[in-house]
Write the structure tokens for this entry.
Amino acid sequence: MSNFWQHIEKPIMALAPMEDVTDTSFRELVASISEAGCLHVLFTEFTAVDGMNHPKGKLRVAERLVVSNTERQLLKEKGIRLVAQIWGNKPEVFHKITKEITEEYAFDGIDINMGCPVKNVVKQGSCSALIDQPTLAQEIILASKEATHLPVSVKTRTGIKQHETERWISQLLETKPAAITLHGRIQKQQSDGKANWDEIAKAVALRDASDLKIPVLGNGDVLSYAQSVDYSQQYGVDGIMIGRGIFHNPWFFNSIPKQPDKAEKLEQLIRHTQLFEKNWGGVKNFNILKRFYKIYANGFEGAAYLRAELMNANTFDDVYKLIQEQNHSVSFTER
């Protein structure tokens, strides 16, 4: 089995899987404005194995695994790996769907979500609920590994109601996943409070003590590339996964901080909209885009007014018209 995780220059830099965020459009945009060598791994949105296993639901759930031709070509040119992230709680379904994804798609790896803290997901016994079901979690990892030649990694948290890093990470290491990404919060915290990087450092120490070469990535409250480099050294992790930090700055993955001006921000807003229209027009809800517009429409005179107008937009053409009114120099690619 080829494990790309072992061959990336450290620190490994990854963009976290995020629902209604890391679709093929946003991944392509982020990859295109990232410096070569500063972004190594991208992930799909969360993909439910139960949904993929349902004849009627598979088509819609599989939208999370769509990779456009332009994204695929760009990632190939930049040497960026793309990993499908899946979740559920039945080892046999993981085995079946992991096998199908391996055979029907062209991903570089499979990642198992054992960290999502959303309450209705946890009530189902999935994602971070598996932290308290270590035997089942191990069965899921082993079943997935058995079904594919791709590296199978795990993204998780430090506990549910309290930190249980030593116990939980030790149990994960027994299954020898290709990599472990550890978010420094417990499930109960959701996204509140500070991520505990000392707990992440404990995971690194456990890995070292096991004499395994499994990369450990840290996740939580990292807001700049410089901070990523600093944390990788300070806490001994092999890499950093960025989540909400990308909303502060889509140009995150550049070694020298980018300070885009109004024209560049609006150009990326248009490009993101065009990519979404090309990939999802008539399929996904246009309003999904609105969560992104505040990323680009900020930091310049008139930004607040533009954001308000964008929130009232109902179509792609509404957006294009608003931006042209703001800045006639913004370039529009062919639609």
Q: What stands out?
A: The chain has two domains: 4-248, 262-326. The first strand starts at residue 12 and ends at 15. The beta strands are 12-15, 41-43, 47-48, 81-87, 109-114, 152-157, 180-183, 216-219, 239-242. Residues 262-280 form the longest helix (19 residues).
